Amino acid sequence: QVQVVESGGGLVQAGGSLRLSCAASARTFSSYSMAWFRQPPGKEQEFVSAISWGVPRTDYADSVRGRFTISRDNAKNTVYLQMNSLKPEDTDVYYCAAGFRLTPQAMGVPWRYDYWGQGSQVTVSS
Length: 126
Hints:
By secondary structure, the chain is mainly beta. The chain has strands spanning about 5, 10-15, 20-25, 30-40, 45-50, 60, 70-75, 80-85, 90-100, 115, 120-125. Helices cover about 0% and strands about 50% of the residues. The protein is globular, with a radius of gyration of 13 Å. The mean pLDDT is about 95.
């Protein structure tokens, strides 16, 4: 069983920045693809960003590309989401997810991830 714990959410004004962190307890963390999703109230989960296992490959939703940056530190079993130029429409609960050795094509698919965190609230005021 892998535990996933997010941190770093909060309240920020539009145009500001936040960094989310996600720690996973997997012994072989480097073998897990890691991703961030968000879920607007009453809507389905929305892919935000992912980073692959092995040689890092990153992927972003069009709505965040150029503003958000995902990275990982395998020595710390942690993945980060640096969010810059935040907009009110970025307000949501952000979930971190871990999936074992996902293919690049699978990284944006929520049901391919086996382990999920409890979510971290990000609120962007206008």
